[in-house]
Amino acid sequence: MDIWTEKYRPGSLEDVVNQRHVVDRLKEFVKNKSIPHMLFAGPPGVGKTASAIALVKDLYGEKWHQNFQELNASDDRGINVVRTRIKEFARIKPIDAPFKIIFLDESDALTTDAQQALRRTIEQYSGSCRFILSCNYSSKIISPIQSRCSVFRFKPLEKADVVEYLKRIIKAEKLSVDSAALDAIFELSEGDMRMAVNLLQSSASFGEKITSDSVYEVASQAKPKDVKVMLDFAVKGDFKSARKKLHELVLKQGLAGEDIISACHREVYNLELSEEKKVEFISKMGEYDFRISEGGDPIIQLEAMLAQFMISSKKQ
């Protein structure tokens, strides 16, 4: 969808949410009109692409399009993208600027050979071009590239930052959203602003008033209260009721096994159990999540997980 994501993208570094430890350093680069090669690393949806574009806008002003090239490495992972598109842009002299900027998004998707070619390209055209690489996992970027870049590590967004940003959109779009819905959006997005905005947009198309129920409906995720009821039945030894609730989640609501385990993982901390039992439950969830990912039948594995919860609870 991403319509609102683009519509409300930061126009300058001042608008970037939360990442002050990064933004303050980037502002100095803009002030000095000079930047090094940079590597933006961090989880998805925390402002890496937004920061790169905001930096370019602040640096070049209205002419930023002429001196900026954005590529997504996940679209073409091979060495040809370095030998053709990147080299062709890098070898052309900048317009009314000391250097141009190439932003390579999701650069950890590049193959090792492509990264080796990129390393050489960075060396060859560093006089007229600066490279900004973004990735989710900096460990997948080869050491020669990392050593040539100034590394910026982006943090997951806090709840207050996500909610404040969403409230700006809610006000601009004249939406009716209750606080429980905002809590649900943050819980599901886990600090990913892009996902949070998309959930809000999807929920807005679902009905005039956005509630937590409509958010979970749009996200196709288990509601915490349903998961809590299922876990409570298992802990209390009522396996039949727990199994019935599980079947309702899987068969009637159409939820995937991995999603139910993720919801159980979030909800287990709210159970009235000792810390030792919670740790034991989390260990079991990891085991059954692995079994499902390896091809195990979701319903059988989830029923077995609930059975383990019930047996473990009786040992208290």
A few lines on this structure:
This protein is α/β, with parallel strands linked by helices. The chain is built from 15 helices and 7 strands.
CATH architecture of the largest domain: 3-Layer(aba) Sandwich
Number of helical runs? 15
**Average predicted confidence as pLDDT:** 85
Range of strand content: 5-15%
By DSSP, the count of extended strands is 7
Number of domains: 3
Q: Ranges with pLDDT <50 over ≥5 residues?
A: none
Name of the CATH class of the largest domain:
Alpha Beta
Q: Give the CATH superfamily of the largest domain.
A: P-loop containing nucleotide triphosphate hydrolases
Overall form: elongated
Structural class: alpha/beta
Q: State Rg.
A: 24 Å
What does the largest sheet look like? Answer: 5 strands, parallel
- Lateral arrangement of strands in the main beta sheet: 2-3-4-1-5
Question: Helical content, roughly?
Answer: 55-70%
Order of helices and strands: HHEHEHEHEHEHEHHEHHHHHH
If you consult CATH, what is the topology of the largest domain? Rossmann fold
Ends distance? 48 Å
